[in-house]
Amino acid sequence: MHILISNDDGYLAPGLLALVKAIRPLGKITVIAPEQNHSGASNSLTLSRPLSIHRVAGGERDGFIFINGTPTDCVHIAMTGFLDEKPDLVVSGINQGENMGEDVLYSGTVAAAVEGVMFGVPGIAFSQIDRGWARIDDAAKAAHDIVAQMIAKPLSKEEGNATLLNVNIPNRPYADLNRWRVTRLGNRHHSQPVVVQQNPRGESIYWIGAAGDAKDSSSGTDFHAIDEGCISITPMQLDLTHHARLAAMRANGWDRG
């Protein structure tokens, strides 16, 4: 079992190191992560400049590979020639902060797992709910258990698509992380307003506002599972086509020619 590990918080992030230590017993590990934090990078690829690859020598991150690019860059390069063999599984995280509901559309953590799936390799994205890395080793132990479950009982491909899981883990002791819930994505209210400030030259600068609070946190959602103190595991897919609307548009004459 060859496991490729990446993240979006950068190769120095405590969540990445904890994850690597926890799942190292499960197989051969290759770590390819961004040089710097790329939270919110989503599935972006760096096309405007060349990328550089470096390997850490010595210390507890010995052998980690880092790239001056995005999480998607890291997995894409691994899949398209950098590695001699394609990995069996892509694991991303552990992210500092939750990725629930619409967060998955912005998340670099999720994007790294998505990139593996685009190349036919199953992907799991791990995030910890609260920022600050509290209980990160406990979260990593729980991630180990989920990866071990994936290896022991792999989910079959549906219509040729590899499995994609988005996992959110509460900041709790490991003894409290034995309850898992398979969930759907909830959704949020709109983001908070943009924050306007002045730079030293008197020009306006803008900070993206905080994510909105949960709007749909009903039973069965990722938000509800986390509110109940459970780990949320959401199976996802890459097909963004609105199939019901597709049929309705055809029925209403949108097809021409």
UniProtKB/TrEMBL annotation:
<dbReference type="GO" id="GO:0008253">
    <property type="term" value="F:5'-nucleotidase activity"/>
</dbReference>
<dbReference type="GO" id="GO:0004309">
    <property type="term" value="F:exopolyphosphatase activity"/>
</dbReference>
<feature type="binding site">
    <location>
        <position position="95"/>
    </location>
    <ligand>
        <name>a divalent metal cation</name>
    </ligand>
</feature>
<dbReference type="GO" id="GO:0005737">
    <property type="term" value="C:cytoplasm"/>
</dbReference>
<protein>
    <recommendedName>
        <fullName>5'-nucleotidase SurE</fullName>
        <ecNumber>3.1.3.5</ecNumber>
    </recommendedName>
</protein>
<keyword id="KW-0479">Metal-binding</keyword>
<keyword id="KW-0963">Cytoplasm</keyword>
<dbReference type="GO" id="GO:0008254">
    <property type="term" value="F:3'-nucleotidase activity"/>
</dbReference>
<dbReference type="GO" id="GO:0000166">
    <property type="term" value="F:nucleotide binding"/>
</dbReference>
<keyword id="KW-0378">Hydrolase</keyword>
<keyword id="KW-0547">Nucleotide-binding</keyword>
<dbReference type="InterPro" id="IPR002828">
    <property type="entry name" value="SurE-like_Pase/nucleotidase"/>
</dbReference>
<dbReference type="GO" id="GO:0046872">
    <property type="term" value="F:metal ion binding"/>
</dbReference>
<feature type="domain" description="Survival protein SurE-like phosphatase/nucleotidase">
    <location>
        <begin position="3"/>
        <end position="191"/>
    </location>
</feature>
<comment type="function">
    <text>Nucleotidase that shows phosphatase activity on nucleoside 5'-monophosphates.</text>
</comment>
<feature type="binding site">
    <location>
        <position position="9"/>
    </location>
    <ligand>
        <name>a divalent metal cation</name>
    </ligand>
</feature>
<feature type="binding site">
    <location>
        <position position="39"/>
    </location>
    <ligand>
        <name>a divalent metal cation</name>
    </ligand>
</feature>
<feature type="binding site">
    <location>
        <position position="8"/>
    </location>
    <ligand>
        <name>a divalent metal cation</name>
    </ligand>
</feature>
<comment type="similarity">
    <text>Belongs to the SurE nucleotidase family.</text>
</comment>
<dbReference type="Pfam" id="PF01975">
    <property type="entry name" value="SurE"/>
</dbReference>
<dbReference type="InterPro" id="IPR030048">
    <property type="entry name" value="SurE"/>
</dbReference>
<dbReference type="InterPro" id="IPR036523">
    <property type="entry name" value="SurE-like_sf"/>
</dbReference>
